[in-house]
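From the shared-data thread, chain only:
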Amino acid sequence: MLVLIAASAVAVEVPMLRKTLVAGNWKMNPGSLAEATELASSLAAHEARDVIVFPPFPFAHAVTSVLGGDKVGSQDICHLDTKGAFTGEVSGPMIAALGIKTVLVGHSERRVFFGDDDDVVAAKVKQTLALDDVTCMLCIGETRDERDQGITVDICNVQLSKALAGIDAALMDRVVIAYEPVWAIGTGLVCEPEVAQDTHAAIRTCLAAIYDEDIAANVRVLYGGSVSPASVDDIMSMPDIDGVLVGGASLVPDSFFRIIRFEDPKATAIAEEGVKNIVQPVSA
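Structure, as tokens:
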């Protein structure tokens, strides 16, 4: 997207940068409330970028008390209703009551281990966006077999289209997409940055088909899949990758801090271009 910068003499178009986001999914970790609180406290002093962590729900209140709801997400949400006889589920109003501002939906582990198909994921997206001022982080991605068949883009497009069916364009400012190749999660394998970039670009093409080019250009699309301090800089050098969804490394403060502090050549380049191209005086 371009923003028009005007002055008394010349107007120059300068690229607008999507704000980066680093998210840490703790999954079913750590093992105690004390560890969760200590981990949250280690993050509290880190203000470098937008950061969100997804703790297990039993620890969510304690972590929110340390970090604030803007920096804490829920790992899941009940798709069936907002209350009722659904043992073990967590409702949208319960999440909102803690001040949590982001919900993770459609993670591959929910799809694989707990049977969250596209219809369930779509229902969870709707439950999340029905909450006031809460963002849905929607995960999509292909398996190894699907990548080997060359249908990565098809799979992502189907998952994206079904999850967003019926979601009004006005709500898309509260949606973040996380592309996570299933074969790269917890395996140590990382999708090559250029390959990840191609998939992210295809995701934006799909968003443009569902909505329009403006929404496609403004929705943040993250990469997830064994992100590490060694891989993050190359990943984040890609133009359509706006951040990362981190698994195991988010449980190790030094590793997560290095990921949070990734080198951002996109921001540097755009800042330098902006300074160079900002309005030049016109001679009389």
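The first strand starts at residue 2 and ends at 5.
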